[in-house]
Fold:
Amino acid sequence: MKMPCELIVTHILPTARGALAKELVTRHGMTQTQVAKVFGVTSAAVSQYIKGMRGGNNLIDKSAYRDDFYKMIADTADRIVAGADVTESLCGICTFVKETGLLRALYVYEGYSGELGTCYDCPRINIVNPIVPEDARRGVSGRGPAHAHSLSMTAPFIPCLT
Structure:
């Protein structure tokens, strides 16, 4: 079974960096070169993030946590523009993933059962009782139709509401 950080690095971090790059360029007026310097990547990589050639993940866009994820990205961009450390900001995104239930969705997406197991027993991760957005409690993702049960493309995911 993969470690939580492996799943986050594979599925979440590229999406977060892509969304953050788009946010910094479109809403904050930074150049691709400035964003590249902040991220420690090339301008070409930032260009690929902005064009959607890098950093996209259907799992987040289909999840009940979509709106909260992108709001967090916007808030993170605001903090970076105000001088916050990028690494610390990206670590905050990982914390969000671990605490909301997206981590469990990643395990289901990877083909694991989604049942609590040893991978969820880390004392620093509260995956047993994740924070669930209000929309997920009602069974909607904020995009109209019910999407709370389609967090993964390979298996259904029902967020823990206890």
